[in-house]
Amino acid sequence: MELHSKIYVAGHRGMVGSAIVRELKKQGYYNIITRTHSELDLCNQQAVNDFFANEKPEYVFVAAAKVGGIVANQSALADFMYDNMILEMNVIHAAWQNNVKKLQFLGSSCIYPRLAPQPMPESCLLTSSLEPTNEAYALAKISGLKYCEYLNRQYGTDFISVMPTNLYGPNDNYHPEHSHVLPALIRRFHEAKVQGASSVTCWGDGSPLREFLYVDDLANLCVFLMNNYSGNETVNAGTGKEISIKQLTELVARIVGFNGEIKWDSSRPNGTPRKLLDVSKASQLGWHYSTELEEGIKLTYNDFLNNPHRVER
Description:
With about 325 residues, the chain is an alpha/beta fold. It contains eleven helices and 13 strands.
């Protein structure tokens, strides 16, 4: 990409999209196109086609998605599959039809099998069954990844995909039911501290192992890959480090300042037992993350405190 290249970031108001915009501006890119949902409904194929025909972006980051934690995924299976599949197909297809030079599709590590080898290499995709609690979302993301691959093979496009691990950071969604584990914990422990609660009950038994990547580090990788990688196989985005949910809750509680008891409700689902990405491909390309988990959680808690409108989303 050149600094003057016309770049469209789909989903620029979300956590990932806003981080990509920040990173692009930080690196000197200035011809960035964005549209809010009210300005452009990505689920409306004609509207998307018209946008691409009129704007003719040269590079596209597909960071728009309908996202959520276990509760949200389980309660709206059809919505998660339909909305994500429709919006990504509309954007990718329109990008191909309008001769976009390069497109980057962002997925999720949930595309990999529930019992995949650990750490999970890109090659383990579609080798066994998915985690049932987010299967609908995973299937939609796999479809987007594969559509990029098939366009490359059939039409010679340069469409790549990136599969991030669990993300967190500024502009996250802190909704008590629809958010992912880390922002949900930040909100719960903060509210418990403010209310003087003696305990907080968390789902499962705390045993699952998870990997977390600060969203600004992901954005740095996304721009790096747009300039340095082409290929049909996706690229994992993570730290290569994992932590148990129990250790994570204790860390968040300490950072937030909650000193009460942490209880566990083992009748609630744990989700996938372990999710650690093999990040050797990104490393071999010359990229490495820079934000350690404790530092990142402190930055995210500060974002939570200073962005009250995010709390109610």
